[in-house]
Amino acid sequence: MLTTAEPPRTRMAALAVRARNVVDSGLCTQTSAVPDWLARLDQLEHLTAAAAADRRGTLSILDDDVVCDLLVLSYLRHGTPYALWADTLAGFAEDVLGVTTWAQLHTQLDAT
Predict the structure, then answer these.
(1) For 32-58, what is each residue's pLDDT tens digit?
(2) Is pTM, for the whole model, over 0.70?
(3) Does the pLDDT of residue 29 top 60, yes or no?
(4) How far is residue 38's CA from residue 97's CA, in Å, rounded to a whole number?
(5) Exposure pattern of 54-82 as b/e (b: 16+ CB <10 Å)?
(6) Angle at Cα 77 formed by Cα 74 and Cα 79, nearest 5°?
């Protein structure tokens, strides 16, 4: 019997998986294939330049489709959908991994 992968822990993790699937399946192989790509590229550049707290706050209020588009663009441009968390390990742990305290992070890391 095949076991299925564990479902993503957070909204951002689920959207990152969706973005990776869009790119890896060949549905979107270049930035111009993303809907409204010029506006999304502009958003991505503004988010990348913003402070981590502002970036995380903005991502939390954006619609899932918009965030997925941004993560697809991040994957195409930077090789990873997680580039928006490159400067905030704690933000990545909370937003993507669903870990909110360092004690939980240590437990999670020890389990892998």
Answers:
(1) 888 888 999 999 999 999 999 999 999
(2) yes
(3) yes
(4) 30
(5) ebbebbeebeeebbbbbbbbbbbeeeebb
(6) 75
